[in-house]
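User: My collaborator sent over this chain with a note saying "see what the structure looks like." That's all I know about it. Can you take a look?
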Amino acid sequence: MGKFIYEGGVKAEFEDRALTHLQLVITAKLRRGEPFPFTWREDVSIGGGRSTVWLHPGSSLVFKYYGSRQPAINRGWTEALAFTANSPGGLYLVPEPPDAGDGGAATAEMQAPVAEDG
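Assistant: Without extra context I'll predict from the sequence alone. Here is the result:
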């Protein structure tokens, strides 16, 4: 389980694979200077519910991974996450769709920024 840490205090746990895809979308939007809300469900072990933070280019973010390997990237998942990030409700984690088989998945290091349609 990786951790998303916002402004040094707000923390949320995600599987490393999901966190990698979230990081790709978040950093692509912030690189373009696009602020947006990010919402996630809290685990029942800490009371359940949901949290939302406002992400902006000046945000202090940490993506802390449990594992040391970069997972393969599912382009369809990054596109689905980018779609939510561009909606009025903002980014939230959606289930991973089946990989469309784009001839070999790229690693997070090699992944180009997510292209978004306005």
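A starting point for your reply to your collaborator: The chain has one domain: 2-92.
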